[in-house]
Design goal:
- A hairpin with a 6-residue loop joins β1 (19-25) and β2.
- The protein has five helices and three strands.
- The protein has a single domain (18-100), classed as GIY-YIG endonuclease, CATH 3.40.1440.
- The N and C termini lie far apart (52 Å).
- Residues 1-9 have low confidence and may be disordered.
- The protein is globular and about 30 Å long.
- A three-stranded antiparallel beta sheet has the order 2-1-3, with helices on both faces.
- It has 107 residues and is of the alpha+beta class.
- The chain has helices at 2-15, 40-48, 55-58, 73-85, 88-100; strands spanning 19-25, 32-37, 63-70.
- Helices cover 50% and strands 20% of the residues.
């Protein structure tokens, strides 16, 4: 019985898994970084603590300023790639809309 419950919960947990496209920065009007993860809290902590070598550590990108939630990595990755190609002004508008509570996802 315990094995069956574990299997059911395991499948349910996988269906409920969320993926996130997020933006990190180092200061207002600073450098922006866009990434994708399945655990936004862990990933933000890794950035803040400097646990990841590379671009975010080099530029001190420790502030999570924006994220979007997706049910599938298949939809999250194309969104990340799209956001990376949009102009900086659009990314800043998205961050500001989040702060003010309005929404829009087009450039």
């Amino acid at each position: 019985m315990a094995v069956l419950v574990t299997a059911i919960l395991g499948r349910h947990h996988q269906r409920m898994r969320c993926f996130y496209v997020y933006i990190m920065t180092n200061r207002p009007n600073g450098t922006l970084y866009i990434g994708v993860t399945n655990d936004i809290a862990r990933r933000a902590w890794e950035h803040r603590e400097g646990r990841l070598d590379g671009f975010t550590k080099r530029y001190g990108l420790k502030r999570l300023v924006y994220f979007e939630t997706f049910d599938s990595i298949v939809t999250a990755i194309p969104r990340e790639k799209t956001m990376k190609h949009w102009p900086r002004a659009w990314k800043v508008r998205q961050i500001m809309r989040t702060l003010t509570g309005t929404t829009s996802t087009t450039p």
